[in-house]
Amino acid sequence: MKNLVKAPSRALMAVVLTAMGSALMAELPITTSFKFGFGSQTGGLQETSDRGYLLNASAQIDYKLTEKGAVVCEIGWRYLPGMERVASRYQQQNVSAAAVGTSAYYKYETGQVLRDEMYNIRSQGWQLGLLYSHQLPMEFYAFGGLRLCFLNTREMVLGSEIVAGTAPASQTAATPIVSVTDLGKANEISAMSPGVAIGIGYTFLKSNSVECSITNANVETDRFGKKSGMMIDFVYRMKF
User: Is 158 among the domain residues?
Assistant: First the structure.
């Protein structure tokens, strides 16, 4: 009997606490939102990845300072895809005698080098932002501040290099292979880059927005070294 009395009491208490929590959150000058979208890479970023687009997603908290101004804290994730490219594909040779019959036996004076190398470079990582947002007329708003990007760049290489030596006295014997070098490897380098971000947004239906912003960032690889560029973002923002 006591449990039957306590159950409604606990349910009522839970409802009261939930209502109090909602009322307290409503009193705080805080707005949370989630953003996701796509964008483009420019400058050294595009040179490194050979791709023109990127993907992004972030969570954001706005703390209202004045009627039109707010401090914005954000944490986000970025993906900068890469494209497979040919670094070198060539056949360097010095032939002193033609093939014997229909066979593939050759005689070389200085040897032959066959090289085939391809690579793909992509980056991904987190970013932290501290921005200031200011409300403009006609539901527009502008924002700017600092974004700290932590991008991990992965370079994947596929390929091999074959060096053939001088053929023996008999031309009926195949040219021996002096060495075979595997060029395949995967290397990762992390780079932290503080950048400046500026952007503009437009609010519609009270809790929805679209934004466009520009942020500078750095990436680093063995092949290209340290490169800087701009990330242009187009995002959809949903407020909670």
Answer: yes
108 vs 45, which has greater pLDDT?
A: 45
* pLDDT given at position 26: 53
Please name every residue paired with 152 in a beta bridge, in sequence order, or none if there are none: 124, 190
Q: How far apart are CA 149 and CA 231, in angstroms?
A: 11
How many domains is the chain partitioned into structurally?
1
- Which tens digits make up the pLDDT trace of 22-35? 444 556 789 999 99
Distance CA 62, CA 72 (A): 5
Bridge partners of 219, per DSSP, are 227
In a domain, 16, yes or no: no
Q: In this structure, what token pair is assigned to residue 223? A: 């092949």
Q: Which residues contact 112 (CB under 8 A, 6 or more apart)?
A: 91, 92, 93, 94, 106, 162, 163, 164, 175
pLDDT tier at 207, thresholds 50, 70, 90: very high
Residue 201 lies in a domain: yes
**Residue 3 is assigned to a structural domain of this protein:** no
Dist CA 47 CA 183 (whole Å) = 22
Q: pTM for this structure?
A: 0.74
Would you call 88 helix, strand, or coil by DSSP?
A: strand
Q: Nearest CA to 229 among 81, 57, 46, 79?
A: 46
Q: What angle do CA 121, 124, 127 make, to 5 degrees?
A: 145
Boundaries of domain holding 37? 29-239
